[in-house]
Amino acid sequence: MAEASARHILVDTEEHCLQLKESIANGEDFGDVAKEHSSCPSGAQGGDLGSFGPGMMVPEFDEVVFSANLGEVHGPVKTQFGFHLLEITSRTD
């Protein structure tokens, strides 16, 4: 069964999400940005969501986490919760 691990940052606006993505691209640490800006409780752990399988997260997450490149920052990804930046840290098929 497929399984993945990922980190994310959740914010209210696409604009804020894009600003944070640029900060990370310019060298800021994903985990530090998550701790400072994410509105999700996982922000306290640097955005770490742990391991999960297909269907355990919202469909928009699954689409990215189970198909996009590992170790890159993806997003903004819009869900009913807001706008996310996602970093896939591992994945098995």
Can you describe what's shown?
There is one protein chain. This protein has 93 residues and is an alpha+beta fold. The chain has one domain (3-92): Chitinase A, domain 3, CATH 3.10.50. The chain has helices at 14-25, 30-37, 59-65, and strands at residues 3-11, 48-52, 73-79, 82-92. A 4-stranded antiparallel sheet has the order 2-1-4-3. The termini are close together.
Named CATH topology: Chitinase A, domain 3
H/E series: EHHEHEE
Global morphology:
globular
Q: Mean pLDDT, nearest integer?
A: 96
What is the level-2 CATH architecture name?
Roll
Number of DSSP E strands:
4
Radius of gyration (CA) equals 12 Å
Alpha plus pi helix count: 3
| Sheet of most strands | 4 strands, antiparallel
Distance between the termini: 6 Å
Could you say how many structural domains there are in total?
1
Low-confidence stretches: none
Strand order of the largest sheet: 2-1-4-3
Structural class: alpha+beta
Strand content: 25-35%
Q: What's the arrangement of secondary structure elements?
A:
Layout: E1 3-11, H1 14-25, H2 30-37, E2 48-52, H3 59-65, E3 73-79, E4 82-92
Antiparallel strand pairs: 1-2, 1-4, 3-4
